[in-house]
Amino acid sequence: MAEQSGYAKKVLVAGATGKTGSWVVKRLLHYGVPVRVFVRSEQKARSLFGDAVEVALGNIQDADAISRAVSGCDGVISALGSSAVSGEASPHEVDRDGAIRLIDEAAKAGVRHVAMVSSIGVTKWFHPLNLFAGVLNMKFAAEEHLRQQFSAAGRSYTIIRPGGLKDEEPLQHRLRVEQGDHLWNGWTNRSDVAELAVLSLWVENAANKTFEVINEELEPQQSLAGYYDKLSG
Ligand SMILES: NC(=O)c1ccc[n+]([C@@H]2O[C@H](COP(=O)([O-])OP(=O)(O)OC[C@H]3O[C@@H](n4cnc5c(N)ncnc54)[C@H](OP(=O)(O)O)[C@@H]3O)[C@@H](O)[C@H]2O)c1
Q1: For residue 138, is it within any domain?
Q2: Residue 233 binned pLDDT confidence (cut-offs 50, 70, 90)
Q3: Is 78 known to be catalytic?
Q4: Is residue 5 part of a domain?
Q5: How many independent structural domains does the chain possess?
Q6: Is the pTM here over 0.85, yes or no?
Q7: CB–CB of 85/98 below 8 Å?
Q8: What's the CATH number where 18 sits?
Q9: Given 118, 119, 156, 191, which residue is catalytic?
Q10: Could you tell me the distance, in angstroms and rounded to a whole number, from the CA of residue 122 to the centre of ligand 1?
Q11: Atom of ligand 1 nearest to the CA of 190
């Protein structure tokens, strides 16, 4: 049954057919939020979500398709991610240019809030993960663009930097949240990343925050909203 959040505006999920993105959709539906997904394959979207979501087709290289997808949305959550060193799913194409295109189209369309999944280590150009086509550098460029575009009055952003991603149920771990990109390792459940992204739509203290998040010990959580109270400006 949908849990009430008091938030009932439409949200676009980019990367919705990915492992984190599909958790974002599930958590939005859990709270009764109307969802539109921006996907490359309608068949994949329908197999995951049935008729519970609106589908906007396109790839992140296509500004017109993105413009149609963000139209009428109050929020955008991006769980986009690259999976190849070159081509349409590369870090350069997806994590940087694609994310920046999404942010720009969202701003033009009057979207109020954008939440984006980034990564721990994103400020460290010398991190070994950058051997994958500079993926962290690409993500950092997109982060900077989001902070610049969405910190203006009437807009807000939330940037979530998880550790290594795992596939477990949400709300099972106490979390450690940090700021300043000092963490070098740790695990985070995709479902908790999704939950934090969804909560950022209506939790006031999530506005204009960039933070890292990793699991601490197993300890069932009633809500993750309180973690936003631990963050500073
Ligand atoms: N893996 C880790 O341990 C780790 C750690 C920290 C942060 N992260 C970050 O967390 C985020 C989510 O990771 P994940 O493993 O859940 O991602 P994922 O399962 O690989 O999903 C990536 C999504 O991006 C979409 N995508 C890729 N290229 C696209 C394009 N050209 N146009 C439109 N959509 C495109 C994919 O669409 P299709 O479904 O059509 O392929 C998919 O929906 C990523 O940004 C990742 O870098 C990952």
Answers
A1: yes
A2: confident
A3: no
A4: no
A5: 1
A6: yes
A7: no
A8: 3.40.50.720
A9: 119
A10: 16
A11: 16
